[in-house]
């Protein structure tokens, strides 16, 4: 039997990297679309790189952009894929308020460009399409937990663009009989998560604070609640959504929600540092109230003045607040469980452990270099 061929847009991103690994392990040939960048931007997929001179490579990269329909059409025509996973997007909610037009173009119209290319190339009945939809569509709370039937109320230019992408995917399915589906994925994180999303910002800062490389972590809204899962589990769901008899849309979530403040607390606790939060709104602070010396020792963290009880390590900076916030997300993954047989393997504590250890090891390396006289501090913000 011929091996399947997939295109992944956004291959250099968090999900692109995990999905590439998954599909390659299932013997797919994977064509990734990446943007041209003035610096290397393939760090997350370098371990999958194959010398293009080898015969029949199974991991092939193409330059491309969701804002360039001719380029997308040409790649789809050349590759004739069985499956397209459209993961590319300007994916940062806060940044979408600064770049609303670009976000609409890439995240909204970009999806149309892919659907229309598949249709015009006569691939409607061959190529299955996965659209990376999002729990941000729910926005202002209409009902909880949020399921496939909960009404949308987007609260950012990002979410509004993704709402267009959601409906144009549904429309092409209904109008042209295409196998096109939305995965409405709730927040999913990992050691590969972009550094400016809240979980990774916290795990990086907690590791640096523990090692004495950073004084404080500046945060926005600590009250927001998110349903956080592990990206490794969520790419499995993407794959399963394209392997069904009929194309449908699915919510992918854990069904558990946690406040940002508690994510911070749990991350520091994992490293052996207990935090107390006091004060309100913009005056809220997180203070070290206890340290577990056995745990610090176990992780190779030296106890010093920087971990003295009473030290303020979390502060609020209003620049991280959003003009309109999504306060509460909690997903109902019943349909994905029943129809796809999908269930997440990681709990929030496992996710935090994975991310915190990874960042701790990263900065322990930097600390070692510093101690040996290399000026790595220049890299720090
Ligand atoms: P990332 O931000 O890590 O990755 C986004 C990818 O899209 C990167 O490869 C980026 O390239 C690429 N990209 C951005 N703009 C363009 C463009 N104009 N043309 C081509 N490529 C572009 O996101 P995630 O991996 O976390 O998310 C994957 C998808 O899933 C996104 O669409 C996101 O909106 C959506 N999503 C994510 C969730 C999450 O919690 N992670 C939840 C629900 C949906 P570069 O590396 O060059 O920046
Ligand atoms: P989100 O993720 O907006 O849910 O979008 P993010 O991690 O950016 O924010 C989660 C919540 O944390 C609050 N917050 C902060 N967020 C950031 N980034 N930085 C801070 O300092 C900070 N302080 C508090 C936010 O206000 C928010 O409530 C992610 C992206 O991956 C989207 O692409 C995806 O569609 C959704 O998840 C599901």
Automatic annotation (TrEMBL):
SUPFAM superfamilies to which the protein is assigned, alphabetical: NAD(P)-binding Rossmann-fold domains (SSF51735)
Alphabetically ordered keywords of this record: Lyase, NADP
Domain NAD(P)-binding intervals: 7-355
Cofactor(s) listed in the protein's UniProt record: NADP(+)
BP-aspect Gene Ontology terms: 'de novo' GDP-L-fucose biosynthetic process
PANTHER family recorded: GDP-MANNOSE 4,6 DEHYDRATASE, GDP-MANNOSE 4,6-DEHYDRATASE
Chain's role: Catalyzes the conversion of GDP-D-mannose to GDP-4-dehydro-6-deoxy-D-mannose.
HAMAP family, alphabetized: GDP_Man_dehydratase
EC number: 4.2.1.47
Catalysed reactions, as listed in the record: GDP-alpha-D-mannose = GDP-4-dehydro-alpha-D-rhamnose + H2O
Entry keyword rRNA processing: no
Name of the protein this chain belongs to: GDP-mannose 4,6-dehydratase
Highest taxon above the source species: Bacteria
Record family assignment: Belongs to the NAD(P)-dependent epimerase/dehydratase family. GDP-mannose 4,6-dehydratase subfamily.
Species assigned in the record: Runella defluvii
Keyword NAD included in the entry's annotation: no
Molecular function terms from GO: GDP-mannose 4,6-dehydratase activity; NADP+ binding
Gene assigned in the entry: gmd
NCBIfam families reported for this sequence: gmd (TIGR01472)
